[in-house]
UniProtKB/TrEMBL annotation:
Residues 6-165 form the Thioredoxin domain. GO terms for molecular function: antioxidant activity; oxidoreductase activity. Pfam families: AhpC-TSA. This is Redoxin family protein. The lineage of its organism: Bacteria, Pseudomonadati, Pseudomonadota, Gammaproteobacteria, Alteromonadales. InterPro entries: AhpC/TSA, Thioredoxin-like_sf, Thioredoxin_domain. It comes from the Bacteria.
């Protein structure tokens, strides 16, 4: 099965999910004081690598917010699955559930079927990360087809620190087509 991928520099699509609080939110909404947004798509409660990554992301929250980069994590899990997952998470950033299969296709993420009922009860997104600039364009994109491939958070945040300095005038990379 092939998926349509988002491209660097493209407009981020209007995709919504439900925050743990029950509030529906557009994934590109930004908190006050932030003009950029990072959307982290994770596999779900069943993935211990996702749990580790989300917990590590918490350590970068202050640096990201200092840069004006808001962020949210989202999966296709149900509310009950997210509630259970919170027992293993030590995070204070927004986390959402209910990403539909159509939303996953719109985002261009890889979609997997569970290996068994013990894993989960629905198709789920493989890991992806999108950083949206102030114009809602995809500045950085990372889409993986397996849980073992994720950006190094220190390198990512250090890179965002570089990009966000106006004197660096750093463009969106990967937009040249032959």
């Amino acid at each position: 099965m092939y998926t349509q991928k988002l491209h660097a520099g493209s407009e981020f699509p209007d995709v919504s999910a439900t925050l743990h609080s029950g509030e529906s939110v557009s994934l590109d909404n930004r908190r006050e004081g932030c003009d950029w947004k990072m959307v982290v798509v994770y596999r779900g409660k069943h993935c211990p690598i996702c749990t580790k990554f989300l917990n590590a992301l918490e350590d970068y929250k202050a640096r990201l917010l200092e840069l004006g980069v808001d962020f949210v994590a989202v999966s296709a899990d149900s509310k009950a699955q997210l509630d259970a997952h919170l027992d293993d998470l030590s995070i204070t950033f927004p986390i959402a559930y209910g990403l539909s299969e159509q939303d996953m296709k719109t985002l261009g993420v890889y979609i997997s079927q569970p290996r068994s009922e013990k894993e989960t009860d629905h198709n789920f997104a493989e890991p992806a990360l999108f950083v949206l600039n102030k114009d809602n364009k995809v500045q950085i994109i990372d889409v993986a087809n397996a849980p073992f491939v994720r950006p190094d958070l220190e390198q990512l945040v250090s890179g965002l620190e570089f990009i966000r300095k106006p004197e660096n005038n750093y463009p969106i990379r990967g937009t040249h087509s032959s």
